[in-house]
Amino acid sequence: MTKPPRTLALFNYDWDRLGFGRWANEFPVVSAGFDLFRFPSNLRLIGFDVQHFVAGLAARAKRNGWQAVTSNHEQFGALAAALLAERLGWPGTPVAAVLACQHKLYARQVLQQVAPEANIPFAPLASRYGEPPPEDIAYPVFVKPVKAAFSVLARTVRDRDELAALIRFGPWERWVIHRLVEPFERIVRARLPEAGSAHRMLLEQPVTALQYNLDGYVFASELRPLGIVESVMYPGTQAFMRFVYPCALPAAGQARALEVAQRFLQAVGFTHGLFNMELFYDAAQDRLTVIEFNPRMAAQFSDLYLRVDGLDLHRVALELAHGRDPALLPRAAPTAGVAASFVYRSFDPAARPPLPTAARQRALAQQFPEAMLFSFPKTPGQIGRDFKWLGSYRYGILHLGGRDALDLRARCEAASRLLGWPPPYARPDPTGAEVGSTLTPAFFLESP
User: Fold this and answer.
1) Which of 25, 164, 297, 400 is most buried (most C-beta within 10 Å)?
2) 157, 161, 166, 171 alpha-carbon torsion, rounded to 10°
3) Do 92 and 272 meet the contact criterion of CB atoms below 8 Å apart?
4) Domain total for the chain?
5) Quick one: average pLDDT of 59-84?
6) Is residue 253 one of the residues assigned to a domain?
7) Tell me, what's the pLDDT at 381?
8) Mean pLDDT across the stretch 109-121?
9) Helix ranges, 115-221 (H)
């Protein structure tokens, strides 16, 4: 009997651990990497070098029977997987394409060449971390690192004092930022030197519009869309409240998103792999604005597609890793008409919402057996850093499906009561519309 192929999954945590676990019998997965958010695993960040990491994996691949590699980890995994696939001749996203997507300044420059109508005014911040900002910046302005995951330190600032405070870091913060960026920086210097250093911040013109995510993949250089997820923010903030699939992006917006994605991905040589394009769309002006391209799956959305379309994006990733066409995959019977990833967060640095007890989790599992729950316990110091870097504290995420939007909301509210958490829906106004869900001010805070 032929053994199933063994796949190496890099930085395989949270949604990926569950997603790849759904296919363990057909695609046994071996994990490598470390968890950036859990001690002591994150101690491996000290001295981490992507090239050394990849060389070690390559030396072990044959004797361990690994036949493919995949990763949806933005900080290190997607690049490491591309480097390993290139080194061993496995199917994978080209290294240059991963670098071009993840270097946010270079990606803007490419977009300006191939789809300027979908771009915004942008410029690198001239000053270094901790230095006084230049005097000639027009405010408000959106600021984000040229290279970061989860859009850490990304926000709109209203004046020079806010900008100075944002880029003023203590010794520990500087050490962490350097360790997170330097592994990428070394590869950029060698493989994409025209992009310039990633150790800096990027300034962008703020945008106000509804926010969406185009998910898709490229196989044999052909772009194939999978769907579009809507992002809904907490009222008056840039923090995600929930992600909903499917969504009502107008047909004109969908067509424009596909056209822009095609032009950009072709320009950077993206010939194979999953991608996620984050965008704004203003229906009144028929205006699409690209936020950024992620050269990997938005793993948080995988089971939303599974619930609604019967297609598991983690299975798509496995097929692509082994060089097989995901279009040939059969689809399961849908279990929901709409599904969402609900994000629970606090905007009060002093508040520490209690994590659900074992009894509450059992009650949730009994009443909502299909629910997917993540909780994020953190120390006071970690919470303080979240507020500095993200502007809020995310303490839980819940995935649910429903027949329609009204049923989904009722189920979320019931599940939230069981958890002891406030449901991530804004209050309705007298007209029945939901306050705060219609417009997204500027860019968002965390990448999906």
Assistant:
1) 297
2) 180
3) yes
4) 3
5) 96
6) yes
7) 80
8) 98
9) 160-166, 171-191
In the DSSP assignment, the letter for residue 128 is P
Examine the domain organization and report whether 389 and 412 are in the same domain.
yes
Q: Are residues 328 and 223 in the same domain?
A: yes
- The residues near 282 (Cβ < 8 Å, ≥ 6 apart) are 208, 209, 210, 288, 289
Region 154-168: mean pLDDT is 90
The least confident of 125-134, 231-240, 284-293, 313-322 is 125-134
Closest of 267, 268, 266, 254 to residue 225, by C-alpha: 254
Phi then psi for residue 330, to 5 deg, are: -75, 160
Q: By percentage, how much of the chain surpasses pLDDT 90?
A: 74
Do residues 414 and 270 both lie within one domain?
yes
Other beta carbons less than 10 A from residue 356's beta carbon: 18
Q: How many residues does the chain have?
A: 448
Q: How far apart are CA 439 and CA 436, in angstroms?
A: 7
Q: Angle at the Cα of 230 (from 387 to 208), degrees rounded to 5? A: 65
pLDDT in tens, 398-446: 999 999 999 999 999 999 999 999 999 975 433 334 443 333 333 223 3
**Tokens linked to 173:** 């913060």
Q: What is the DSSP string of 4-28?
A: PPEEEEES--THHHHHHHTTTTTS-
In whole angstroms, give the CA distance from residue 181 to residue 166. Answer: 17
More confident position, 16 or 36: 16
228 and 278 in a common domain: yes
Sheet holding 201-204, edge to edge: 122-124, 201-204, 141-145, 155-157
Round to whole Å and give the CA distance between 265 and 218.
Answer: 9
Tell me the two tokens of residue 192: 């994409």
Nearest C-alpha neighbor of 348 from the set 422, 243, 439: 422
Same domain, yes or no: 346 and 276 = yes
DSSP assignment string, 40-66:
TGGGGGTT--HHHHHHHHHHHHHHHTE
